[in-house]
Design a protein that fits this description.
single chain; alpha+beta; 5-stranded antiparallel beta sheet; EF-hand-dom_pair; EF-hand domain-containing protein; calcium ion binding
Amino acid sequence: MESKSGSSKRKNGAKGEIVDGSKIMELVGNEQVFSDFVDNKFDELDKDRDGKLSMKELEPAVADIGAGLGLPAQGTSPDSDHIYFEVLNEFTHGKQEKVSKMEFKEVLSDILLGMAAGLKQDPIVILRMEGEDLLEFVNGPSYEAEMASIFSQIESPNGSLRDHVIEAFGRLTVDQGIPPTSDSWVFNNIVDPALSQAGPALDKPAAQETFLEEFKKVAFSVVDFLKEKPVIVAHSENTFDGRGVKRLLSNKFELDRTLNLALENLPKDRNGKISKDYLRLALDLVSPSAGLPPVGAIEEMDKVIVEAFKMVNVEDTNTVREEEFKKILTEILGGIMLQLEGNPISVSSNSVVHEPLGSSSTLLQPSSSETA
C-alpha cells in the first residue's frame, strides 16, 4: 500500500499519512511501470528460475496481499485462512499448476485495483505515536473524568492496582495517544517497562483516587518509552450502511457483470448447475463490488450475513442453474442491504506496523526506481 503525499489530522491533533490507494492506481494504470514492477516481483518469487511460480513460490505474495488487506497472519484464524486460500486460488484458478508471468500480472492487477478501490472508499491513516498525544491527554481537562469512567467499568473488585492500570491501558485508544496494548510488542516494550518503573506502588488494592494518581505516573513513563521507541499504527474507520450494496443492485449492467465474474470461479456439475454450498464463496467474491468486507473479517457483519441467508430459501434443492443461483445471491445482497440500512455497523481498527513502511511488503511496495 502507498501513502498519499500530505497528512491528515485526527480529532486529538495527531497527524497521519493517508493511505488512499491513489499510488496503487497510478502504478497499475501505467502499463510500462506496472510491467517493470511485475517483472521485478516475479523474479523475486521465482526461486527456481523456471519462468513459472509454484504454489510454494506464490505463498509470500499471498501473505503480503493478506497483510495489505489487514488480515492476521496465516494460521491464526480459520476465517482469514479461508481468504488466504481464495487469494491463492485466484492465482492458480483452483488448479495445482504453476502460474505464468502473464497470469500473475493479470491476477495481481485485479487484486491491486480491488484494494485501491477499497482504500479510496475507506482510507487508512498511518499514525506515528511518539508520546505527545498521550502527554496531552494525561495533562488535559478530560483526564480525570475519562479515567474515572474507565475505572468504574473494570470488573475486577479484588484486583490489584497493577491489574486495573493494565486493564485501563487496554481500554484507551489512539485518540488518547495509546497504541494497541493487545499487541505483544507494544506491551512488552512500552507498557511493561513503565509498570516495572512504578515498582511496589502498584501492588496495593485499587481505589479510584489512588488509581488516577498512579496511572498518570505510569502514563508519563509510557510517554518516555514512546519517545525512545515510536510506534507506527495503521488506523481505519469504516461504516457499513448498505449504500455500496444499493449502488450495485441499482446498476443492472454492473450487477450482471459482477455476478458473472463470480460464477466463473465456481465449479459446476456436468449439467452446468452450481451447488448452493458455494453461495458464501460467491458472496465473498462479490463483496468488494458491494462495499462489504470479506466474509469472516468482521464478526458483526458475519451475523448480518447469517440473517440474510435465513431470509432466502437455500435449504431445498442443493444444485441450481446459474440464473437461479444469481437470483438467490441477489436476494442475499438485498437482505444484507436492508439490515445495514436499519442498523449500520461502524468499525474502527488499529494495527501496529512492525516494519518500516517502505519495506513492510515486498510485493505491494514498489521501489523508488519503479515508481519514478
